[in-house]
Amino acid sequence: MCRLATLVLLAAGLIVGAPSSAEANPKYAAIVVNAVDGTVLYSRNADARRYPASLTKVMTLYMLFEALEDGRITLNTKMSVSRRAAGQPPSKIALSVGQTITVNDAIKALVVKSANNVATVVAEKLGGTEYKFAVKMTARARALGLKRTKFNNASGLPDSGQYSTARDLSVMARRIVQDFPQYYHYFKLTSFTWKGRTYKTHNNVLKTFKGADGIKTGYIRASGFNIITSAKRNGYHLIAIVMGGRTKYSRDDHVKLILNNQFRRVAANPGLISRSRKLPVPVMKPGSEGELIAKTLTPKPGSEQIVAASLLSPLDKPGLLATLDEAQNDPIGDLIEVAEEEQLASVQAQRALESFGLDSLLHTDPQDPLSPKIVSQTNSVFSLNPSSNAYFAIQVGAYRYEEIATERLNSVKAKAEDALDDAILAIFPASVDERLVYRARIGPYTKAEAETVCQTLNARGLACYPVFKEEWPLNNARGDG
After folding, report:
1. Tally of domains in the chain
2. Residues 335 and 366 in one domain
């Protein structure tokens, strides 16, 4: 085929595919689906694991909308800002410790500004802690059909154990469109005002692409530039996910390209996918504290079956999948797998700590946020002499969340208390690459003692390794046993 003929076909939208630059990008993944029934129209690396970044907040909002629907909160409910929430890195809005924000304003801040501090506020309101909320997010996502997704936080901030796929995100996007039409209008916002300051959306596709009506962008360094876009033209409703853009501009251009191609394709083949059918939208009331804020109108006869069918995952409906062209190599997925393997006690890390509290933790120095915290001491008497080369410890894990580190130490103690003698179980917060991690350690020991104890724990299936020269909070060494 000559060059001129190729250009003509491309201009006509008859050649459908990702540009070579996108194919060469190891972070790239994309999918376009029919919003009505999930039919896949375009797919590249759609099942490869990727970092969702702030696309995570769409699931956070799904959980928030569910809480609105079942009456746990209203749009006027005020949510308190904790120290942890206020300290989240940008993107964020101006929030200080002890301040409150209404659910209505929180939704706008998440959609428009992608505010990480607001995501934590919502998580703590609905889950108690962000980790507990993330566990619930994962469980709910799996129930919705997101088969290869795991959440460790509500914002999408960097976390090696948080991942999803383009296909899963398309299911999530369809569900939020179909399950909460009364709240979907928030995703069309291009700005909102908070405390006298106006914030503008990151989503330029919403403003520049014909038919676009939402929904979310995202970026962290590990993911590249991500986007979920919903658009309607001529009675067709498509949802596109693009992940791994090298810049926000190339990401935006690419999602427009693949959507334009697919809109042309379905227009040329009217029987290819089902058209949207206008269904009654539930009425949303302003509401006040303690009131249910929304009620659902009775659907028109027959529409219940349409909705029920459209909520199925495309993987559950034979014959609807387009031919997939999946990459053989998945470098991002490999990185995620390596990171997961390096997380000690991954089973404990994934458990919901519904009944776990932090009352037993003791700050050795309340003024120092990086001061070690004692979880427990196996016996009431500390017998090691710290002056006799007791500068070693054994590390049994390093985690993003204090709760998981504490649970890990308690688990090790329960399985191997006899091997720990009079050692102290402590958490050592540390800043690593500008991220706070919690190192779960036991000691202090001499080098030989640390190696011996670690070998004993390894023999019992408890992963650990010796670490050198740890400062132990001996002056305040006590615990709840």
Report:
1. 2
2. no
Active site residue 114: yes
DSSP E strand boundaries for 118-275: 191-194, 197-200, 212-220, 224-233, 236-245
Residue 2 confidence (pLDDT):
43
CA distance 270 to 234: 11
- Residue 311 class from Cβ within 10 Å (0-12 exposed, 13-18 middle, 19+ buried)? middle
Which one is catalytic: 43, 82, 91, 114? 114
173 & 85 share domain: yes
Q: Would you state the pLDDT for residue 26?
A: 85
Q: Looking at the structure, do residues 333 and 377 belong to the same domain, yes or no?
A: no
Instruction: Please check whether residues 132 and 200 belong to one and the same domain.
Output: yes
Give domain status of residue 414, yes or no: yes
Residues 48-90 pLDDT 10s = 999 999 999 999 999 999 999 989 999 999 999 999 999 999 8
* Pairing relationship of beta strands 224-233 and 236-245 according to DSSP bridges: antiparallel
pLDDT given for residue 393 in this prediction: 85
Q: Is residue 27 part of a domain?
A: yes
pLDDT of residue 356: 33
pLDDT tens, position by position, 142-170: 999 999 999 999 999 998 889 999 999 99
Residue stretches of the chain with pLDDT short of 50? 1-20, 285-328, 342-367, 379-388, 474-481
Q: Kindly state whether residues 330 and 353 are assigned to the same domain.
A: no
431 catalytically annotated: no
Residue where a domain stops, chosen among 298, 323, 342: 342
CA 466 to chain centre: 32
Catalytic residue among 27, 57, 113, 256: 57
**Domain boundary pick from 282, 310, 342:** 342
Query: Active-site residue among 43, 54, 250, 376?
Result: 54
| 405 lies in some domain | yes
Phi and psi, residue 177, nearest 5°: -65, -45
The whole-number pLDDT of residue 378 equals: 58
Query: Do 228 and 336 fall within a single domain?
Result: yes
Sheet holding 362-363, edge to edge: 362-363, 373-377, 424-432, 435-445, 392-399, 465-468
91 is known as an active-site residue: no
CA 140 to chain centre: 12
Q: Where would I find the H helices in 54-203? A: 56-69, 83-86, 103-108, 116-127, 130-144, 166-179
Please, are residues 93 and 118 in contact by the beta-carbon 8 Å criterion? yes
Domain that holds residue 274: 15-342
- The domain that holds 154 is classified in CATH as 3.40.710.10
Residues β-bridged to residue 228: 216, 241
